[in-house]
């Protein structure tokens, strides 16, 4: 196929996995290609490359013939990559000649913003800034209680807050940043949290004061710090494994149909599910915290990026959940609401069919293990037409937050209409 497994193992040490010393991963002259397979053999080649080559980063992965792959290619693997595609008759469209350019521009904006010392929603922030802001909210508002949902391999806190205006409310658990490079996720969680405390909009006040909110902007803190300090495109945790390999995909590591679909057994892979379910201390400790809330939370919402999708269980099978029709109808109303403000179009559906098979995800675990029947994953802006979705310009943080909050109001209204919060015995 032109790209050997042996060659790719070396590549991760030299290029993508800058895991030793003080060097920072750079993507100078890394090209980004759009590839659309037109046959099953072409699709198989791309999936094989995704599983076997660590010299390629798949920013977006198609699921079927005719769907799009966006792939970052290291300069030293360009010849092998293009030869492999040529041999299979695959056309690749060049989208970007220098991936590092977007990353440098993003970093410059962050440095400038931090120098001014403000925490707002016009830029992205490092973990310590987010945690300091949560501390400030807890001191400022009686309704805010600091929480620790667990800890990381490098002993960072999975810090969050509970927002509660009165007792007896049904609970909503909000999870952000499980994939480290998806910076719009923690930013959106922070934006929604701020609005729950400060908005004067009657619909926002209604959900703010009639639900208890358990909100965690960054549940993969080691990975998030690593994206700021070392490698902007890092996805996983930072647990060290044998062979100089680091991290597992924390959204393939939950103990619900673990490792059955859409996950890799290779540690070098970005979708490595770990050696066993809950092998990552982040998922283990967070799951224990969430389990302690059983009966108190009636909705579990996870924020990811990118592709503009609203997804619900299951990811491990094409079989539908018992309340599939409700979840589908709620999702339809939710994405319709989201589109009203800026015209942002989302697709929706169960994970397996709407995006790709993926087992061991947090939302599936909450649904299948804790019986939280309102369980959704947002894949935030941008849409699938963008190649640099993980480096979303910060000017899109507020619009993303606004339309997502609009949709969250509808999601809760529609699920309430269907009686999902009536039997809140332990609230």
Automatic annotation (TrEMBL):
Gene3D superfamilies: Metallocarboxypeptidase-like, Zn peptidases
Signal peptide: 1-21
Named cofactor requirement(s): Zn(2+)
GO CC terms: extracellular space
Keyword Metal-binding listed: yes
Active site: 379 (proton donor/acceptor)
Entry-linked Pfam families: Peptidase_M14 (PF00246), Propep_M14 (PF02244)
Compartments (UniProt record): Secreted
SUPFAM superfamilies: Protease propeptides/inhibitors, Zn-dependent exopeptidases
Example GO molecular function: metallocarboxypeptidase activity
Keyword list, A-Z: Carboxypeptidase, Disulfide bond, Hydrolase, Metal-binding, Metalloprotease, Protease, Secreted, Signal, Zinc
One GO process term, biological-process aspect: proteolysis
The Peptidase M14 domain, residue ranges: 123-415
Protein origin, superkingdom: Eukaryota
Function: Involved in the digestion of the blood meal.
Family designation: Belongs to the peptidase M14 family.
Name assigned to this protein: Zinc carboxypeptidase A 1
Species of provenance: Aedes albopictus (Asian tiger mosquito)
């Amino acid at each position: 196929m032109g790209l050997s497994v042996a060659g790719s193992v070396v590549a991760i040490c030299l290029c993508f996995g800058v895991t030793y010393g003080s060097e920072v991963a750079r993507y100078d002259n890394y090209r980004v290609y759009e590839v659309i397979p037109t046959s099953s053999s072409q699709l198989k080649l791309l999936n094989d490359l995704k599983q076997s080559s660590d010299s390629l980063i798949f920013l977006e992965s198609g699921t079927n013939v005719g769907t799009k792959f966006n792939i970052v290619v290291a300069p030293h693997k360009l010849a092998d990559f293009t030869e492999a595609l040529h041999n299979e008759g695959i056309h690749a469209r060049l989208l970007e000649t220098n991936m590092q350019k977007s990353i440098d521009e993003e970093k410059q904006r962050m440095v400038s913003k931090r120098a001014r010392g403000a925490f707002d929603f016009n830029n992205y922030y490092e973990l310590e800034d987010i945690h300091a802001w949560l501390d400030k909210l807890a001191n400022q508002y009686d309704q805010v209680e600091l929480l620790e949902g667990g800890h990381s391999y490098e002993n960072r806190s999975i810090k969050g807050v509970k927002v509660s205006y009165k007792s007896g409310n049904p609970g909503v658990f909000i999870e952000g940043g499980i994939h480290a490079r998806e910076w719009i996720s923690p930013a959106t969680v922070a934006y929604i949290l701020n609005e729950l405390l400060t908005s004067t909009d009657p619909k926002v006040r209604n959900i703010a004061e009639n639900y208890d909110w358990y909100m965690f902007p960054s549940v993969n803190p080691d990975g998030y710090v690593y994206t700021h300090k070392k490698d902007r495109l890092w996805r996983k945790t930072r647990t060290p494994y044998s062979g100089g390999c680091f991290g597992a995909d924390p959204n393939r590591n939950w103990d619900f149909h673990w490792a059955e679909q859409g996950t890799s057994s290779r540690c070098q892979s970005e979708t490595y599910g770990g050696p066993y379910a809950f092998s990552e201390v982040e998922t283990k400790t967070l799951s224990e915290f969430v389990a302690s809330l059983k009966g108190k939370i009636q909705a579990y919402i996870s924020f990811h990026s990118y592709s503009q999708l609203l997804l619900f269980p299951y990811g491990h099978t094409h079989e539908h959940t018992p309340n599939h029709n409700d979840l589908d109808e709620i999702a339809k109303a939710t994405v319709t609401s989201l589109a009203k403000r800026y015209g942002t179009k989302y697709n929706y559906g169960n994970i397996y069919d709407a995006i790709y098979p993926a087992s061991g995800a947090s939302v599936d675990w909450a649904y299948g293990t804790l019986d939280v029947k309102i369980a959704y994953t947002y894949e935030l802006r941008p849409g699938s037409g963008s190649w640099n979705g993980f480096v979303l310009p910060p000017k899109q943080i507020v619009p993303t937050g606004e339309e997502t909050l609009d949709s969250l109001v509808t999601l809760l209204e529609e699920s309430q209409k269907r009686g999902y919060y009536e039997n809140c015995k332990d609230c």
